[in-house]
Design brief:
The complex is a heterotrimer of chains A (about 220), B (about 300) and C (about 475). By secondary structure, chain A is α/β, with parallel strands linked by helices. Chain A has a domain of about 140 residues: Rossmann fold. Chain A is built from five helices and eight strands. In chain A, the strands form two sheets. In chain A, strands 3-2-4-5-6 form a five-stranded parallel β-sheet, with helices on both faces. Chain A has a three-stranded antiparallel β-sheet with strand order 1-8-7. Chain B contains twelve helices and nine strands. By secondary structure, chain B is of the alpha/beta class. In chain B, helix 2 packs across helix 12. With about 475 residues, chain C is α/β, with parallel strands linked by helices. In chain C, the strands form four sheets. In chain C, strands 1, 2, 3, 4, 5, 16, 17, 18 and 19 form a nine-stranded mixed β-sheet that branches. Classes of the chains: A alpha/beta (about 220), B alpha/beta (about 300), C alpha/beta (about 475).
Chain lengths: ~220, ~300, ~475
Amino acid sequence: MHALHPPGEDSGQARPDPAGNSRSAVPPGSKTVLGSEEIRRALTRIAHEIVERTDGASDVVLLGIPTRGVPLAHRLAARLSQAEGHPAPAGSLDITMYRDDLRLRPARSLGHTEVPAEGIDDKIVVLVDDVLYSGRTVRAALDALGDLGRPRAVQLAVLVDRGHRELPIRPDYVGKNLPTSQREVVRVLLAEVDGQDAVILGQDSAEPGADGAAGAGR
Amino acid sequence: MNRHLISAADLSRDDALLILDTADELAQVADRPIRKLPTLRGRTVVNLFYEDSTRTRISFEAAAKRLSADVINFSAKGSSVAKGESLKDTALTLEAMGADAVVIRHSASGAPHRLAGWVRGSVVNAGDGQHEHPTQALLDAFTMRRRLGRLDGLRVTIVGDVLHSRVARSNVLLLRTLGAEVTLVAPPTLLPVAVGSWPCDSGYDLDAALPKTDVVMMLRVQAERMNAAYFPTVREYSRRYGLDDRRLALLPEHAIVMHPGPMNRGVEIAADVADSPRSTIVEQVANGVSIRMAVLYLLLGGAEAAR
Amino acid sequence: MSESAWLIKSASPAGGPATDLLLRDGQIADMGALGAADGARVIDAAGLIALPGLVDLHTHLREPGREDAETVETGTAAAALGGFTAVHAMANTEPAADTAGVVEQIWRLGVRAGYCDVRPVGAVTAGLAGSQLAELGAMADSRARVRVYSDDGRCVSDAVLMRRALEYVKAFDGVIAQHAQEPRLTDGAQMNEGEVSGRLGLTGWPAVAEEAIIARDCLLAAHVDSALHICHVSTAGSVEIIRWAKSKGWRVTAEVTPHHLLLTDELAETYDPVYKVNPPLRTKADVAALRAALADGTIDCVATDHAPHSVEDKETEWQVAAFGMTGLETALRVVQAAMVDTGLLDWAGVADRMSVRPAAIGRLTGQGAPLHGRPLQPGSPANLVLYDPAARSVVSPAAHASRSRNTPFARMELPGSVQATFLRGEPVVLGGKLVASDGQAASDSQLAARERQSQRGQPAGPEPVR
């Protein structure tokens, strides 16, 4: 689950903004590392890489991990069908029930899982997420996938790889490698969810282990 | 959510919707090749059944197992309260076994309430005497929402032995919370004396209520009521309050027919009505597992501190 | 007990002007502004109210049969701590108090314990079975001198049997104390029938089940011109019927329990059987009617229905738990909270409703029975209680002398504190604590003397109020 604080909620580290751009979605003390145009280009590039590495993407099923992986998967699917002329199936894969940190927080509400009608057996499943961090979400997604069927191969596409892996997991497609410190928080905003596209790097103001650190950090 | 689920009144509107939404997602698990989630691995759920109810026990057992919990079935039926181990001693035993949740079915109203005072784990009421059966109400609401697409403003008519029915009590409370309008229809002998203070309407005339009904829920007539002068004869009851073909035709076309089971075919519901496409009776059973998975997940799936 | 004298300084008799009381030879020897008296020990009672020793018409002492819940000794100790100097021990023991032998045994156990006078109540029907009269006359003639008869816990529901009982006890000035509960209307009943019972799914106990029996019995008592006492009145409707019967001049008296004056059926929402009682806790409107009836005298007296139960009988599911609450040690405090602090009754009223009238109903006249319920005046027996109405404390069942802990007032803050209780001039409670009883150690001759005392009640005074 993406712990995306609403703009401005990140008040712990908030400093007076000399520029006075308080209407911006970028909280004080944060900076935009990708704008909407850069996100668009990154996704287009990833789509092309998928086509290249899957022999025309004919067997590809894109599964986004809620919340923001899902619109990303659908955007990639649209680009794939544009490029290849046949529709690329896209869906969503909720991993809540497979998380390894369930007991650290109150029970959370579930995201939606929707596997395209084609199913995933013998397909190349491309998991799509916004930020790759510890790798634990991807681990949970692999478990969840195993209970749904048996893909021929599983690949991973992320908009941002911020490093600090805790598990032996690597992405196949990366929009942007973003070296970060663990004290920093990466936020992805998408038009479908947030009304605009942006990737923001901020300081972690929340106490360790709280929503901000654990969620956005995955 | 509270730590326990004892009464439908424990649930806020948000809690109830969270359970229904969670159940919607979990219902998919039944259609997957592997009908199991690892979520409650290492957690222990005890089914403590002081009353025979195979269907409810199996439903909770399936729900807990689909979430990978360890399930211990403790059937205390037959150990009469007078000579058997007391509920409190049983509670202390369960506590020692490290039960994370106790699902209790008991003939005494309030037994889950008492149990909750004696154990640390979550207590889930699977039916207590003539008091409540909150997971039944949740699965009924879930079934209505799936069939009719909404609960807000839905007109639900509950028919039969309201006085002794835990299903009716829980449904009145939950459906009210979720914005439905409930009408109870029964012979006056089978309505509580203070039914006027309940958050619903009540009446004696089934034929008058049916045309204004989106959901009709038929309650089971318990055998022991039949000889206790609540009504003259089963035949008269069936004639005045049974759902037959003629009455089915009085319902609006979209209306559905529910029954918590087990049914007395030919008494409160005619066989062909029970088997008609408008009947949700089989669906209710399947939905029961999803609802109970949702309840167990939301009570046990998170941090201890939150419970 | 040793012969001794006590000088009580500056007590307020029934809430009146402070005065001194000299207790000597079992009597109130003198009152007024008194100097030091020869050999008299002095108690400073400034700020304390003196009341005539309280009389309970309705106590379950459980002995013989359920000594795990209460014994005559622990029950009477609890009574003394509550300010009672006489209690009526209900007949539903095992075996039932339905013969001269059993009532004499209970009476003797009371004498031996020595904390207060124990007046056995005789069963109306043999074995409380409701089918055949017990030997009412034999119990009346026994050393226990039984005058009050009751099948309490069960109703004498057979109208013919009730009529015969009322008639029969006229021969020895007896009174039938009816537990008014129509059995068919209360089959399986768990709590007051109303909004709360419907919500909790507990079988309802309709008010009419009590009121119908009271109405019938008032008419029967009138018809045979006998004395009827109504136990633990719990509904507003019952009050109306009793008021009507009294307006006719019929010989009907009634009692109300402290818990029905303070608690309501909403407490059942906890499903804690400590609130399960027969008759059940009723509604706010009933409580208001009961208070008003006690204040205007329609209800004659407060009686505790002290009903001790073992932990096993209460730490259970509601519907399998036993009915009943303890009450001796909290009665006066609850009456202060419900009646005095609300302005409904003054302390003279309390003396009347908790001592004078119950003593009259129980025939505690000093003739063959001990004398209780006399106003505090020179010549009266020195049965009295010193009570601090300004104290407040939280009720702690663990501190109770009763063997059982099923008080519904646990953890409630109540006003008042019983400071001292005197039985025929001897302190049984001092400083709020029990004075060690010499009952078990007393010699046979001492016990015999005490038996005589408790029958004469000494001294013979004028006829008590009836």
